[in-house]
Design brief:
Length: 249
Amino acid sequence: MNKVAQPTIVVASNKEDAARCTADLIHETLRENPASVLGLATGGTPIGVYRLLVERFLAGELDFSAVTTFNLDEYIGLGPEHGQSYRYFMQQQLFDHVNVVREQTHVPNGLASDISRHVTEYEEQIQQAGGIDLQLLGIGNNGHIAFNEPGSAAASRTRKVDLTENTIEANSRFFESAEDVPRHAITMGIGTILESRRIVLMATGKAKAQVVQASLEGPADPVNPASLLQGHAGLTFVLDPESASELQL
């Protein structure tokens, strides 16, 4: 009987230390393979991670020249120059400050004229790059990873999705109002994410404690998409004390 792989759980001393621990894991990946393929996330959680990576690049400790990146998702209807697009976010937070080659950075195109063709090509690009070595994830209050909302299948691939009211409300803080938040997005699927050789999910804050506990200690259930990561051989959760506060083990 095969033993199910157990995740590595890192509980950092605080939010800043959680960012440092996560940056260390990415740093280690690039040290082992300077031509690594990184899967990247957006949102508030990874900002501290990207700041540390930029600092290390400027200090001569990191080289991104051979790195390839694939982002998890993008809003449909927002172009790369829109201040709330995820391409814009990545340029501002990381890409514009390191020596990564623009053509080697991939973010879904929210203005693609043929979404079905575009998502198929995005999957093909990941495969052509050799697959993702390390995938960085955050987690939503409802357990969503990327824009894989509750009910997403474990085998799901990159696709167009409808955003839930929960996610629209959570993301409205980045827009003038909830009405301005796009209702659709392109997201990597859970099946796509699970093919990554290593997955690092970072969560901080008390608001994430319940969903983190359910993701790690509850059943693997599409109702909580993050729980579908259970059993992945290279899964690491990086937490702060508040987000880890509901864990039983």
